[in-house]
């Protein structure tokens, strides 16, 4: 299963004089050149266009094997696109897809483009975005690994120390999950800072747990921190929308946010809400795993929060 969109969206502002002066992206070059390619070069082009995310980061040897051609044929293919060689092509492709990945994380691109094309108004767009979120949650639940889930809940409930890691849009989920776990008595901390990640990991011991969240599975800081944790004999868990990724490789247990919406290029956007819902559910299961004794503590916490947070009856008086 591919957890990333098959092709990046059109660049905003791609028309007009500014768009004409801008250098075409790697995949735009490839699409423009494809009709003129034949033989082995055409097979390489089709391999890249079919799943550029699978090609991203692959060596020239791997791409040659995927396309069923020689390495020389791959080199000739890159030259046909105007690149000096495979290295320049690979860098351009990674940059191209990296831009698309950031956009897909923050925006349901296909749904918005359809709305702009007159296929629905604001209410229709809101309904379709919410339907996408629901679909992603349903897909995640249907494809959740029960053994992995049981193990993660058990370890979260019993680990002497739990460290949560996440950067970018994963950081707020770590913050929320940390609060939920702390509320039921789990000794937990979280960080989004790369240096703090390493500092926290350096203080952990075997028996502790590091839990990282990364939708793409390629968040450098989180992957490096998990790798460091494994070197220290600390168990690692990853929550990702891409289990066949670096974070999946360095996680002892992996939970997957799954979505059939990948074919529409919107899985990365939908993964955020599904991930939040999954973490909320896991926190509830952790509370029960701890024997349900945390209920009284939660009641006391709720009463204290109400005293501090609720407005007094005379709040309008200004006293």
UniProtKB/TrEMBL annotation:
Domain HTH rpiR-type: 24-100
Composition bias type Pro residues, residue spans: 1-12
Annotated stretches, region: Disordered: 1-24, 289-319
Keywords: DNA-binding, Transcription, Transcription regulation
Organism: Jiangella alkaliphila
Residue intervals of the SIS domain: 152-292
Protein name per UniProt: DNA-binding transcriptional regulator, MurR/RpiR family, contains HTH and SIS domains
InterPro entries: Homeodomain-like_sf, HTH_RpiR, RpiR-like, RpiR-like_SIS, SIS_dom, SIS_dom_sf, WH-like_DNA-bd_sf
Domain of life where this protein originates: Bacteria
Family matches, as Gene3D superfamilies: Glucose-6-phosphate isomerase like protein, domain 1 (3.40.50.10490), Winged helix-like DNA-binding domain superfamily/Winged helix DNA-binding domain (1.10.10.10)
Residues passing through the membrane, by range: none
Any one GO molecular-function label of the UniProt entry: DNA-binding transcription factor activity
């Amino acid at each position: 299963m591919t957890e990333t969109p098959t092709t990046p969206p059109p660049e905003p502002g791609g028309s007009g004089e500014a768009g004409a002066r801008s250098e075409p992206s790697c995949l735009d070059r490839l699409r423009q050149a494809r009709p003129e390619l034949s033989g082995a070069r055409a097979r390489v082009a089709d391999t890249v266009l079919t799943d550029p995310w699978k090609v991203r980061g692959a060596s020239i040897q791997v791409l040659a094997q995927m396309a069923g051609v020689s390495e020389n044929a791959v080199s000739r293919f890159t030259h046909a696109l105007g690149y000096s060689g495979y290295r320049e092509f690979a860098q351009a492709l990674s940059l191209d897809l990296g831009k698309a990945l950031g956009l897909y994380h923050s925006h349901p691109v296909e749904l918005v483009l359809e709305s702009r094309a007159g296929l629905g108004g604001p209410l229709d767009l809101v309904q379709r975005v919410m339907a996408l979120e629901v679909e992603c949650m349903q897909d995640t639940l249907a494809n959740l690994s029960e053994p992995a889930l049981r193990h993660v809940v058990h370890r979260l409930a019993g680990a002497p120390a739990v460290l949560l890691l996440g950067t970018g849009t994963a950081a707020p989920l770590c913050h929320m999950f940390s609060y939920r776990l702390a509320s039921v008595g789990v000794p937990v901390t979280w960080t989004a800072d790369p240096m703090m990640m390493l500092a926290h990991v350096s203080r952990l011991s075997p028996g502790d747990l590091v839990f990282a969240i990364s939708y793409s599975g390629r968040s450098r800081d989180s992957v490096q921190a998990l790798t460091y944790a494994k070197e220290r004999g600390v168990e690692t868990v990853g929550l990702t929308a891409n289990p066949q990724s670096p974070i999946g490789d360095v996680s002892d247990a992996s939970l997957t946010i799954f979505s059939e919406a990948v074919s529409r290029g919107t899985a990365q956007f939908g993964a955020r809400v599904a991930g939040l819902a999954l973490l909320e559910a896991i926190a509830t299961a952790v509370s029960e795993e701890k024997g349900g004794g945390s209920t009284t503590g939660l009641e006391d916490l709720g009463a204290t929060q109400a005293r501090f947070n609720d407005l007094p009856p005379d709040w309008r008086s200004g006293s």
